[in-house]
Description:
The protein has helices at 53-71, 79-86, 94-113, 123-129, 143-151, 180-195, 288-310, 336-339, and strands at 12-14, 31-37, 40-46, 88-90, 158-161, 165-168, 200-204, 207-211, 222-227, 235-241, 244-250, 255-258, 261-264, 280-285, 317-324, 327-332, 343-344. It is α+β, with helices and mostly antiparallel strands. It has a single domain (1-346), classed as ApbE-like domains (T-fold, Roll), CATH 3.10.520. The longest helix is centred in the last third of the chain and has 23 residues, at 288-310. Mean pLDDT is 92; it is low at 1-10 and 13-23. The structure holds adenosine-5'-diphosphate (ADP) and magnesium ion (MG). Adenosine-5'-diphosphate binds at residues 7, 118-119, 122, 126, 131-132, 175, 177-178, 205-206, 249, 253, 265-267, 269, 292, 295-296, 300.
Amino acid sequence: MNNLPASFFPRALLLLSIIFVYASCAAAKSAEATEYLMGTRVFIRVAPCGRDAQADIQEIIQEIRRFDAAASAHRENSFPARLARDGEANFTNEEEKSILLPMLREAFAFARASGGAFDPFIGKLSKLWGFSSLAMRAEPPRADEIAQALAASGHQKLLRLDEDGMAVARHTELDLGAIAKGEMLDRAAARLYAWGYRRALLNFGGDVYVIGDRIDAEGEPWRIAVQHPRKAQAYLGVARIQDGAMATSADDERFFIHEGKRWHHILNPFTGLPASEAVSASVIGPRAALADALATALFVLGADRGLALLAQYPGYHALFVFMSNDILQERMSPGFADAAGWKAAE
Ligand code: ADP
Ligand code: MG
């Protein structure tokens, strides 16, 4: 399993029964689609609402494809690829700008707010560690390679970000992997709300956005199980959410084991090594982009410093799992259990 990009294994298992539904909007079957996009599994399920639900889902999927083409560092000629090549990239058209500019602004504002724990300029480092390629490394990079990639990272390397595009310091590379799924979830949810959908579930690689009640149970919130970070087929507990997002960053998503040690894909931008303060961090809140970015930052910061950062974001709550004396421990932010309707697994 450690040779596969692990986001093929959804983090949040959705506990639900499907099929016939009695939606408040229209009594109908649910419509759904699964695709591999943005390097992960994208799942969309909606209760039809007087529209062609399958066509609407396909429109969202097309939008994700365009988003990925513009935002992925791994696609030729994408914005991050042009930026890496030239140190500068301008938006080539209005659509590219409308996709990227709000996300870039949020990413850099949050990078500063997180004191650099969230770093959109982690690109050189994440390429060096190689977690996004299909062929996983067998051992960690050398210290001098890490030092070199680290020197090219850090949000302070931003020289310009404006309506035209952006410019960066030499060798610096953009990686939006820790916010892009959340951003796309918010865009997809906004479309569904605007089209009048009242019940839907969006699961993009384990980051989830839900609209309204569960499709199969009127008046019931969606149930989102958080995967146990060390036991396959087990979960930590179940969150019950009605309109909002849940994002998880965990060290068992993409990793390799070398000499008994786990090396995973969430990097500490201060050391250039995989972050070691947490095993998993889940965040719930109204917007998926912020929940996604927060989950990554909280993972890097660990529970103590992470909770201090989280306190600046009303409406966002977190569950941390970390290792202490070789034992997995959990810690919740003060509002998490209530806001998530949390039910711990027995
Ligand atoms: P996932 O994408 O697996 O759900 P995350 O949201 O935590 O998990 O994003 C991890 C990805 O973000 C990594 O694969 C890498 O591309 C990038 N990344 C790793 N560490 C950081 C960091 N400290 N800040 C910002 N992005 C990061
Ligand atoms: Mg994230």
